[in-house]
Amino acid sequence: MIKEQEEKRADSSETRDGTVKLRNPHIELFDQDILYHIALGSKSHDLVEMFGDVKFVCMGGTPKRMETSAHYIMEEIGYKIPTGTTLMDISQHSYRYSIYKVGPVISVSHGIGSSSIGVLLHEMIKLMYHAKAEDPIFFRIGTCGGLGLEPGTVVISDDAMNGLGNHYYSLPILGKVLKRPVKLDKKLVRELKALVAQDDPYDTTTGTTMCAEDFYEGQGRIDGAFCDYTEVEKQEYLKSLVTQGVKNIEMESVPFSALTHQAGIKAAIVCVTILNRLKGDQIAVPKEVITQYQQRLQILATRYIKKYLQTKDSSCLLKGSFAVESP
């Protein structure tokens, strides 16, 4: 089944013209495609006008984090919004996710866990399709638990696996389990790693990310409401992950990497560790310190965005005023 999914994706990608292609023939039969969870529609909104210039979709967990990210990106790329206007949550009436747009960059919250990001990915991929956006790049930026890494370490995922060690996204559909392969763009991983500065006051590494279905038991924590294993068993499990090249644990990498790959979209995952799971389970780092850690993700993603815009004819990509300073 995985091989069949891979062949279907590859065959479709060969004929791509830069715009996102859907693998759902039913969409074109609808009078309108309602993107319910982001409060947009293919007829109720001019999606080409609103999002046709999008080149980057940055996803993170919480609405506030992605609003902050949007403001940071706006400042770094020198994007100027018209006088008398301000950034607004485009999907504010959905009450589910928050979307902010800064020129060719979307900053959107995805919630927590596979189910939440899965819903958003379906609708963001369809949004890019209806908007006729060309070759958009998706980033997931978020926090994670590290394995043998000091808090504040940035991890660029070069692979992902679920809690059983499988490198695919399994989903029960019509009574059968469909398995979609997990793939991340290796070239994009190398390009991001190349943007790490020698004077960055923190470490940046690459490795496999484990995607858990749960925050507590699914990640081997012993501080949940239930726990049927010992500290020794937990440590043995975590150390076995390290031997498999796993650098961090979070809850969204498998569906993110599988669904973007299925859609033929280049994608990358960049996380920052907020604790070393080999030393404990509870997050005791002050909130202001975690906020500082999260800025490291924004810095790396924005370095890539700025480099991209500096090598393209940015005047045709953006609405509003725009300037990118030379590094």
TrEMBL record:
<dbReference type="GO" id="GO:0005829">
    <property type="term" value="C:cytosol"/>
</dbReference>
<comment type="similarity">
    <text>Belongs to the PNP/UDP phosphorylase family.</text>
</comment>
<dbReference type="InterPro" id="IPR000845">
    <property type="entry name" value="Nucleoside_phosphorylase_d"/>
</dbReference>
<feature type="domain" description="Nucleoside phosphorylase">
    <location>
        <begin position="55"/>
        <end position="306"/>
    </location>
</feature>
<dbReference type="GO" id="GO:0006218">
    <property type="term" value="P:uridine catabolic process"/>
</dbReference>
<feature type="binding site">
    <location>
        <position position="221"/>
    </location>
    <ligand>
        <name>substrate</name>
    </ligand>
</feature>
<protein>
    <recommendedName>
        <fullName>Nucleoside phosphorylase domain-containing protein</fullName>
    </recommendedName>
</protein>
<feature type="binding site">
    <location>
        <position position="96"/>
    </location>
    <ligand>
        <name>phosphate</name>
    </ligand>
</feature>
<dbReference type="GO" id="GO:0009166">
    <property type="term" value="P:nucleotide catabolic process"/>
</dbReference>
<feature type="binding site">
    <location>
        <begin position="140"/>
        <end position="143"/>
    </location>
    <ligand>
        <name>phosphate</name>
    </ligand>
</feature>
<dbReference type="GO" id="GO:0004850">
    <property type="term" value="F:uridine phosphorylase activity"/>
</dbReference>
<dbReference type="InterPro" id="IPR035994">
    <property type="entry name" value="Nucleoside_phosphorylase_sf"/>
</dbReference>
<dbReference type="InterPro" id="IPR010059">
    <property type="entry name" value="Uridine_phosphorylase_euk"/>
</dbReference>
<dbReference type="Pfam" id="PF01048">
    <property type="entry name" value="PNP_UDP_1"/>
</dbReference>
<feature type="binding site">
    <location>
        <position position="219"/>
    </location>
    <ligand>
        <name>substrate</name>
    </ligand>
</feature>
